[in-house]
Every structure is written in structure tokens, then in C-alpha cells.
Amino acid sequence: MQPSSRAYKKQTLPPICAQTSRWGRLKAVITVSLPSPAQPLLPPSSKTLNPSRPNIIPSSDSRKNPNFEPLKNRLIRQLDVGHLRHAISTLDLMTQQNAPPDLTTYSILLKSCIRFRNFQLGKLIHRKLIQSRLELDSVVLNTLISLYLKCGDVDTARSIFEGMGNRRDLVSWSVMVSCFANNSMELQAICTFLDMLELGFYPNEYCFTAVIRASSNAKYSWIGEISYGSVLKTGYFEADVCVGCELIDMFAKSSGDLGSAYKVFEKMPERNLVTWTLMITRFAQLGCARDAINLFLDMELSGYAPDRFTYSSVLSACTELGLLALGKQLHSWVIRFGLALDVCVGCSLVNMYAKCTADGLVNDSRKTFDQMPAHNVMSWTAIITAYVQSGECDKEAIELFCGMISDQIQPNQFSFSSVLKACGNLSDPYIGEQVYGYAVKLGLASVNCVGNSLISMYAKSGRMEDARKAFDILFEKNLVSYNAIVDGYAKNMKSEETFLLFNEITDTGIGINAFTFASLLSGAASIGAMGKGEQIHGRLLKEGLESNQCICNALISMYSRCGNIESAFQVFYQMEDRNVISWTSMITGFAKHGFAARALEMFRKMLEMGTKPNEITFVAVLSACSHVGMISEGRKHFNSMYEVHGIVPRMEHYAFMVDLLGRSGLLVEAMEFISSMPFMADALVWRTLLGACRVHGNTELGKHAAEMILEQEPDDPAAYISLSNLHA
Question: Which of 215, 314, 387, 662 is geometrically suited to a Cys-Cys bond with 223, CB 3.0 to 4.6 A?
């Protein structure tokens, strides 16, 4: 196809993205402008497509000057070895000796400045070029556009482009479409592409790649789909692997349509490492972790060697599925191929060990972190987050944050969000406020994730007035912000405020998700308001969320805490997909309502179904055994915690075992059990023993237990009262 004749005429071009009404014509323009399948699929020659003027040759004086060629050759040699300053001196010398440089010389100089990323020198050459009064051709102008784009000056690049008039060629248009697409100016990129088509230019693979990239969002995905048809029609899909990669990204990013993305991947006649890694990454990011791992294995069988980005993505998939064994195997491959020291891979390993370790310890995460030769904000944030998520290492997380600052690494919004969560877990708003003050200083306080963590921190510390102030000053509130304050009110027994805020969320039109309803159900349960809980349950049925796992778990907890254990069991029974929280909530409910046998039977079924118990599950199981005095059963489950399930017993598990032995009158054995503990018993354990001594009248052991309580908590009046009752 030949370009339209109007591409050769001097004309006043429509401003880029002038009328959005042209969107309706986009499909027709692309369809009409491109060849049908019966026509050749290769574009016309670039010579035909280039309406620019011929290059201006050096003046006759220049060419006659015997110094011109030697000086020009010297300048080129200097550029070849990267001596840009010397080349500029040679450029000035050419002018002084009446052998002024030609456009080719300037073009070579500009391209060298771009290659060596010396943009300031490139701007200096541009000024000299203006002073030379040479009439610039499309090659030099395109190089100038590239120079300004590379240094981030989009406005100047755009000004040069718009001033080119009919000297614009396909390269000019391609560069500008790419510029807008790469700078999150999607609308401008698409409008520029449309202008190019209307002027009769035939898009090349770079244009299509750029416009597809600009369409990688929900708003413009339909344009990307039209472009998909065009690249299939023109043959660029088969000719350039980059086009296929952009199409995969477009389907994944715009609508999460991994099915269409994978169809593109399968159709690609040629795939490289980037293609495989991109598809694996999108699978891992969009909830298809198992598909990501399977595709990684296919990639290995196809003979491609994974790089650091591939390993990072597949390790994230292992983390999502809790596949620690596979993660460790990948770790050994990473070491073998010399990628263990990479920051990106290191962060993925830190995260994997933190989330997949059964006992919640972070030893392997810390070891991986310490082995990294250099740390950046990503690696520091990864290890801080790992400590916070472990549930037991919040103080260490704050210490790591301090170490990060000492290491001259500036925290980002995710660093602040994690350390504020640690302060909330410790109920330490004093340190949290200092951390937040530093976020204000760095200009990150207005970022949503920081503000949301501040709300949660105050809420967990019981300071709901401050939490509400933090919520109110948020510039842009999202659903996470509302959920944080609703959850705070619910957990601080302020159910009235919880339900008032729920009405506010409804009025804003932000929408309500499963977490919001779970918080509301928690608020109803905290005050025993089963009527409120039932109203929420009715709303859930109306919204079609009754099968949501998170909501079902909250319903089980609400009905159980409000005393309706049979309704809790009914919700549990109707669940299609149960997780460890579902089972544990039901076991806890039965145990607290005195149905120990049903609790233990539920635990047995849980194991039969292959659901792995956690620390809280065993708290409920040991509690059930304690309530009915099942000593041998309790011992069996306590011993199985580490031996069978790899869970290290914590203080509360030991306390329940002491309670089990104490209730049965085995006080001496309970004392021996305390002595055998791998760590010092806290006041809770001794209070449990003291209560049993009072029931069974063992004054001597009771006195010892009271002394141990007072040694740890000298101001505890309950110990004195219990000891007094023991002697009464």
C-alpha cells in the first residue's frame, strides 16, 4: 500500500488527541489503512514512506577545504572510544578552520551522546546545531527527539515533533507513540497512532508494540484487541516476538484475562526467555501459581535457562502455594547458577522462607538476607515484612528498620507500612508516631498504605480517637482505609460506630468486600448481638457472598460467640471450601460450649481431609481435652504438635497442658511438666497451677506458684487473693 498523498502536502495537522469522538472511527481507520490478507504483508519501502527533504550536504567551501575529511574522521575516532569532550573540541575546530560540520557529523555526535547517556552534552550540540543554520532533516530531528525522551524531557521532544511538519517520517511517529506509551500517557499514544494512520503512514512493529502497550488497561483494552487483529493481518505477530509479549501483557493487565494471554503465548511461532518469563510472571501475579510452576517446568524442558526474573516469579508461586520443598530445590539451583547474590532473587527467597516455614520462624529468611552482598530498599523491606508476618518478631522488625536507616537506605511506603504494623502488634503507638513522623518528613505520609497502617496501629493500641483522626485526614480513602477503621471499631467493642461507618461506606459507592462484612460480624459478636449478626447474614445472602470462605469463617465465629453453636455448625456444614480457619473456628466453638467429644471428632475429620492444623487449632484441641479431663488424649495431641506437624509448642499450649494435669489432680506431675519446659514459664502458667492447687488444697505447691507469679508481676493482686483463698 502507498501512503496517502496528503502525507506529502504541507498542512495544519490536528492537535494530538484533539477529539475523543474519533475513537468510533479507529477500527475503521485501522481496517481500511492496512492491507487485506491477499496483499503482501510486508510494508512498503521506507523510501516511499519518507516524505522528508533530502539531507543538506556540506557547503562547497567545506568540501573544498582539505581539512574537512581529516577532522571529521578524527571526530569519529574520538567518538568510537567515548571521548565526547574531545569530539566537541574537534567540532569547534572544524568551524574555526572554515570546514563547518555537516548534518551527518552532528547526527553521529548526537547518537553518541545518547549511547553514553551524556544528555547535557547532547543539548549543547543541539544549540550548536541551531547556530549552524543548517536545515535539519528527519534523521537529525528524530535523533533530537530520542535525545530529549531519553533524558525525560517529553515536552521538548513533543515540541520538536510537532514542529517537523511534513518532515515527519515513520520513525518520528513510532518514536512519539512509544514515548507516550512509556510515560503513562496512554490517550496521547493512541491518538498519535490514529493521527499517523489518518495521514497515510503504514505502522511498523514498533508502532504496534507501543499502541498495544498503551492499551494495557481496562479503559483502552478494546483498542488493543483491534490492534491484535491488525498485527495478525499484517504478519507482524509472526515476525516480531516483542509484539507477542505486549499482547500477553495487554490481556493480563487490562482484564486479568490469562486465558487469552496464554492463547497468544501458544500461537507465537518463536519464543525467547523474555516471553517465557513474562507468561510465568503473569500467572504467578494473577493467582495461577500452579500454572506458573508448570510453565516453568515446560520452559526447562524446552531448553531455556531461567534468569533472575524467572526464578523470582516462580519462587513467588511457590510461596503462594506453600511449597517449601520445591522452593528449597529452586534455591539450590539459584546457588548453582550464580544467582543467589541477586537482590531480586534474594527478596523472593526471604519472602518464601518467611511465609512457608511451618513454625513461623524467620531463621532461614534472615540467613538468606545476611548472605546478600548488598542491600537496597527492596531487600530491607522484604526482611522487615517477614519479621512482622511471623507474628512473634515485631521488636526485631523495628530494630531492622532502624538498621536500614543506619545503612543510609531511605525507606519507601511499603517499609513504613510494615513497621507501623509491627508497632500496632506491640500496641506501641509512641514508636509508631516517631516512625510516622519520619514518613511525613519524606513526603510519604499521604500514601494510602502508610495512612491505612497508621489507622490500624492506633486501633490495635486502643486509641480509636486517634485512629479516627488518621482516617479523617486521609486525602484519598479507599476500601482498605474503611476496612481498617471498621475493623478497629469492631475489635474495640464500639459496635455502634462500626455500623454507622458501614452506612457511610455504602453511601460513598466505594463498594464493600468480604473483609468489611467479616469486620461487621466481628463487631456483632463482640457485644453478643446475634440479631445484628443475623441481619448482616441476610445482607450477605442478598449480595451473593454466602459462599465466600472468609465470610463463612466470620459467620461461624459470630454464631459460636453468640451462643448458637448449631447455626455455626450449619454454616460450616454448607461450606464448599474449608480452610484451617474454618475447621479451627468450629473446633473452638465446640470446645467452648462444652462439646469436647464433638471438638475432638471434628479435629480427627480435619486431619483425614488433609488440612494441616496450626498453633490455634491445637489451643482449641488441648482446651477440649482439658475440659473433660482426657489426659492421655491431651498428651498425645501435645506431643504430635512438633513430632507430626512440625509446630513448636508455645506458652499457651504448655498452660493448657498444666491445666489438664491440674484439673485431674496431678499437681506434682504438672509441676514436673513446668520444670521440663524449654523456656521459663510465665505468669499465666503459674496462675493455672495456682488455681488447680486451690481446688485440690495443695498449699505447698500453691505457695510456690504464687511466689513465682509475684516474682514476675509483683503488683498482681490476684496472686495474693488466690494465695489467701488457699489458706482459708
Answer: 215
